[in-house]
Design a protein that fits this description.
Elements: H1 3-37, H2 42-75, H3 88-95, H4 98-106, H5 108-124, H6 126-142
């Protein structure tokens, strides 16, 4: 099979995938809208659905920008970084257990999704938020 025919097949597959993905997102948005109609008036349900789509688009753009920034940073000359206790990364490296760090390196996609879901759950529910604050407070007081 020549490279031209492989390119054509891959292009057709990508086009079909893009079209089906757009349909899937449209139906998912409609389903969310229908669920929100049970609790909210139509205008509010539509605004929440549109806000969710806008939030997902912003999140996708941020992830893409971070990926591009990481690639550019990796390609640039390495500079020694001074150890600063105010630096969030060095604080997290001191706190995070090596097993958790290894798991995050082995499964970066699952780690991002898990962190995102945990953030949504903690941010949404007052009881979960206060429980998380108490756990963090106890963790830093014990050290």
């Amino acid at each position: 099979m020549s490279w031209r025919s492989r390119v054509r097949i891959n292009t057709i597959a990508l086009i079909i995938t893009a079209i089906l993905s757009i349909f899937a997102l449209g139906f998912a948005g409609f389903a969310i809208y229908q669920v929100l109609l049970l609790s909210y008036p139509p205008s509010i349900a539509a605004a929440i659905t549109a806000g969710g789509y806008a939030g997902a688009a912003i999140l996708a753009m941020l992830i893409a920008k971070l990926a591009v920034y990481q690639i550019q940073k990796d390609n640039s000359a390495p500079r020694p970084k001074p150890a600063d206790m105010n630096d969030l990364e060095s604080i997290l490296q001191m706190v995070v257990v090596p097993a958790v760090s290894k798991m995050v390196q082995q499964h970066p996609g699952k780690s991002v999704i898990t962190t995102l879901l945990a953030g949504v759950i903690v941010g949404y529910n007052d009881e979960t938020r206060s429980a998380a604050k108490n756990i963090i407070k106890r963790f830093f007081e014990d050290k």
